[in-house]
From TrEMBL:
It comes from the Bacteria. It comes from Pseudoalteromonas qingdaonensis. This is DUF3802 family protein. Pfam families: DUF3802. InterPro entries: Uncharacterised_A0KLC6 (IPR020979).
Length: 116
């Protein structure tokens, strides 16, 4: 659906262009979750929103989305493996929120294209 599309390659390029956010210390908020916990929570939230907005998706399509999202999270784990257990900084939180929104946009566009 999206993993083999040019948009996903661009998303990964965007991640690599912003790796410096994860390489330098920043201001950690009180009770901040780890980078991994935040990634999982924010992406899961976006996937739930996607499925709610596209109620026409059948079980097979939803399963495909979940499998591809698992692949995206796996890619993030690979790239960010050294910082996954660190508390997230404000800058990292903002990036992860934006990244998750871009993931949702990729799926929104793929769903719209398939409906045409």
């Amino acid at each position: 659906m999206v993993l083999e599309q040019p948009g996903y390659d661009e998303l990964i390029m965007y991640l690599t262009q912003n790796l410096a956010l994860f390489e330098k210390p920043g201001q950690v908020e009180a009770n901040a979750p780890s980078v991994m916990v935040l990634i999982e929570d924010v992406i899961a939230e976006q996937v739930m929103m996607l499925c709610q907005q596209h109620s026409e998706l059948d079980t097979e399509q939803r399963g495909q989305i979940v499998r591809e999202v698992d692949g995206i999270v796996y890619d993030l784990q690979e790239v960010l493996s050294r910082v996954l257990n660190q508390a997230v900084t404000r800058e990292q939180r903002a990036f992860i929120d934006e990244f998750a929104s871009l993931v949702k946009n990729l799926f929104d566009n793929a769903i719209a294209a398939a409906a045409r």
